[in-house]
Every structure is written in structure tokens, then in C-alpha cells.
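Morning F.,

Quick status update on the modeling queue. The single chain you submitted on Monday has been processed. Sequence for confirmation:
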Amino acid sequence: MSNTWIVVADACRARFFSADKPAGPLNEIETLSNPQARLHEGDLVSDRGGRDRNGGTSSHGFGTSNSAKDETANRFAVEVCKRLEKGRTKRDFDRLYVLGAPTFLGLMRKHQSDALRGLIRDEIAKDVTTQPLDRIRAQLPEYL
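C-alpha cells below.
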């Protein structure tokens, strides 16, 4: 069991790594994917928002302020944080590094417990989910 985990995430994918030694290489332990994040907005919604006529000649639309893509990303952030919380409660790690697309990092922050937040050693706002292991490792401190 490693006591350091690294999660690299964006709205489409989250990759979980462990580090056996403070200066050692990363070992990929799990990947979560969110294929809906790759879809166009029109593919995620079935219809336009409704309309309301107010007795006069004007009308306004009913809709949400969040797009379907935003909602999909938010649900995925919840899923990633649940996985991290599961690892925390099982004591799979006691240090965590989070690398992610800046917008997705913000979503993840909303869903982290205080206990999980206390284990985060660093957050790096960089989207490297598609990068090879050596490039991801280069973004992290030399000694984890």
C-alpha cells in the first residue's frame, strides 16, 4: 500500500496513481471516464426550454442557468470525489496531489469533504489527463 495518491482529472477522465517511494515513478491504479463530456450540448438535451407568455405580447424562456455539459461535468466531479473519499476512509492514502483542468478543479473543490481536503498536499491547475506518465510525474514535486 502506498500512502501517496495522485489524481489527474478533467471533465472526461480521471486517472488515479500511487507512488511507492517519495521520488519514485507513478503507478496507475484506476481510471474513471465520462464519455458524455465529449458529446455536444445538443446531444445531451432532448428539447429546448419552455416558453411563458405573460398575457401581453412579450414572453420569456424557462431554462436553467447551467448547461447540460456543466451538469455532466458536475456529476463526474461528484463521482471522482466519492472515489477519493472511499480511498481515504479505507486509508489507502494519507497524502493526495490533485492535477486538473482549472474549471474541473473548481467543481471538485465543491464536493470534497473537510477530511479529504486536509490530505491534499498540492493542487496543480493543469490538464494533463492525456499525457504519458513521465510528463505527469514532471508536474509534481521531486519528493512526494
